[in-house]
Amino acid sequence: MKKYKLFHNVCMDCGNKCDRQADRCRSCAAKNNMLKRTYNRPPKEQLIKDLLESKTYLALGAKHNVSNVTARKWCKYYGINKYNVN
Ligand SMILES: [Zn+2]
Predict the structure, then answer these.
(1) Phi and psi torsions of 17, nearest 5°
(2) Domain containing 13: what range?
(3) What is the rounded distance in angstroms from the CA atom of residue 48 to the CA atom of residue 34?
(4) How confident is the model over 40-58, as pLDDT tens digits?
(5) Cα(21) to centroid of ligand 1, in Å?
(6) Is residue 15 part of a domain?
(7) How far is the CA of 16 from the centre of ligand 1 (A)?
(8) Ligand 1 centre from 23 Cα, in Å?
(9) Cβ neighbours around 61 below 10 Å, total
């Protein structure tokens, strides 16, 4: 009979116990996901400039290699509206 050892991994960020196959606990994984999603967001000034040039979120996204949905989220984050850029 094989002995099956139940053990917990330790979160690489906060050191708390987490799922055996996870690198991070749930809350740290969520934080990490957020970081991943926002790390390449350009600064506001750049985004305004690009939006003026691109005119659409799709073109803006293409310029930054992201989807139009992501481009729209960036603009929303900064409170930029493509109809009201200044
Ligand atoms: Zn953690």
Answers:
(1) -65, 145
(2) 9-38
(3) 22
(4) 789 999 999 999 999 899 9
(5) 13
(6) yes
(7) 5
(8) 9
(9) 20
